[in-house]
Q: What sequence folds into this?
C-alpha cells in the first residue's frame, strides 16, 4: 500500500481542528517537542490523513488539497458552499482559516 499525507501550515490548532471537524476529520495525534514549542497534529477521516503543522519550516503555504469523499453535497451543505459539476468530478472549494484551499469532490453524476 502507498499513501500520501499532505502537511498544511496552520497558526491556531484549536481553530483548525474545529474547521477540519466540519469536514468529518478527528484528531489522531498531537506532538510537541517541548512545552511552548509549535504543535504538529494529525487528523483523520476514514483512511484519509492530513497533518497540520505550526512549524515555520513545514509547508510554507497556503496549499491546495483535493479531497475525495462519498458525497460532496453533504460537505458543501455543511460548509455553505455550492457544488459544481466538472467532467472529472462534482466538487466544491473551501478555504481553511490559514488560507489553505480544499477542493472536496465526489465522482461525477451519471
A:
Amino acid at each position: 500500500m502507498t499513501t500520501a499525507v499532505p502537511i498544511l501550515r496552520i497558526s491556531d490548532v484549536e481553530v483548525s481542528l474545529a474547521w477540519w471537524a466540519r469536514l468529518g476529520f478527528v484528531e489522531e495525534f498531537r506532538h510537541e517537542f517541548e512545552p511552548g514549542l509549535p504543535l504538529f497534529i494529525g487528523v483523520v477521516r476514514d483512511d484519509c490523513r492530513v497533518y497540520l503543522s505550526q512549524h515555520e519550516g513545514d509547508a510554507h503555504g497556503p496549499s491546495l488539497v483535493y479531497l475525495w469523499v462519498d458525497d460532496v453535497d453533504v460537505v458543501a451543505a455543511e460548509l455553505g458552499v455550492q457544488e459544481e459539476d466538472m467532467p472529472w468530478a462534482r466538487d466544491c472549494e473551501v478555504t481553511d482559516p490559514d488560507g489553505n484551499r480544499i477542493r472536496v469532490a465526489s465522482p461525477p453524476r451519471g
Remarks:
- Residues 21 and 27 are 9 Å apart (CA to CA).
- The chain has a mean pLDDT of 94.
- The first strand starts at residue 7 and ends at 9.
- Strands lie at 7-9, 26-31, 40-45, 48-53, 64-68, 84-85, 90-95, 101-106.
